[in-house]
Amino acid sequence: MKILCKKVWILGLLCILWTSFFTSCSETVEASGESTLFPAVNQSIDFKLYPNDMAKNDSAAAHLARGVMLMVHPEAAYTLSFDIDPTQPTPELQLFRTYEVNGREGYVNFTKVRTLMPTVVGNRYVYSFTCHENKMSIWATTLGVDGKYYEGKVENVRLNGVGTNSTHFSINLIVVGAMEKTKDGLSIEEFSSYLLSAFREKYYGVTIDTLYVRYANTHPTLGYKYPAEIPWVAGESSEDMFVSELAGWPEDNLRNALNIIMVHSISKNEIMGFAHLFSGVLGSGDESSVVIGEHVRKTGGGLELLSAYTIAMTAIHESGHFFGLRHTSTTRRDLSHETESGLMVLSGDLSNMEDGLTDTPFCIDVFRSTLYKTAGVGDAVYRNSIGCLAKSGIETCPDVNNIMFPITVSDTIDVIFTEQQMEIIRSSLMIFPH
After folding, report:
1. Within 13 A of 36's CA, how many CA atoms are on the CB side?
2. pLDDT digits (tens, 9 = 90+) for 200-241
3. pTM of the entire predicted model
4. Which domains does the chain have, with CATH numbers?
């Protein structure tokens, strides 16, 4: 039985901006007399919280006092909560806007947005706030008591978000470079109809108004960069694997669409598609697209042309990541990164081996498998063509029929999102401005 390994998400976000996240001071007193406790100067801010993510996020909880990242959106209402440590005084939460330091790539500084005291709900501290930024932003946190970092235990942290935006969206399929018919003979026009039907079936809790098809070579200002007769290889034809400049197509009904970039193939072997976890932006934005390939490069050499089903399910799976869904069962690549020497090391939050949802089973065989012993490319990971897995135990995993299972068996067609997964998609869509 031929199986296909889906793209695995490592929790990286946006760009190098977050790899060295420092400020030049730690604590100041404002003219008002209020103490400002900046994120710690002796650490990078490596952990982030996404709205409505149900994974445990123990590492983010442990670093909340000294600084983690929060992804926030215009006019969305948020609560940040965690269990009360009865041995410690009540901490105040300080939130900071981040901005890049001029001339120092990868470094940011902070300006304080506000200071909050919690409401006590049961055995939890609950901090409530609304984001009044004009676009998606990254805020940083500290927890403090009398100008010093909170020393209590922070457990079971949650960032919940509620938006009022529409549960409707459209898809903009952007075709880049030369294409041929799919393995089962569908033209781009036929495939686009197939893709829309598949999205409407699988994304049953929201409304997909329509799917547009645009060809990169016809872009009114950028078309000359994308000749229709030359195959486009993401990661090779340009430095930006996401082809970000094509997002936010300059037509009114496309400016806030979900952009799916379809290319001939992706430069690394076995990659079928990729996207950021909780991308946060519909329409234009750096690396805010879902990227899928019509072909996959094989480890042994050559290219494999993919079927319409495989391409469509890759797009649906990657869009699940875009809207905030994790894999139902974690792979080693989810929690790893590649060092400069090429060694893959586990570096993520091991508490996030499960997605935290009660209606998505977990399969430890996926993490134990040797199929994911290589690291991803940056913060993108992939679908692999592997071969028979009968001896691995993976094909008997209880979540094998879930769209966010990290391995897709090619002849399995009854794959679904669960109700809790669809609620996350719906909540994210209402948070994303569009």
Report:
1. 17
2. 999 999 999 999 999 999 999 999 999 999 999 999 999 999
3. 0.87
4. 16-162 (2.60.120), 167-325 (3.40.390.10)
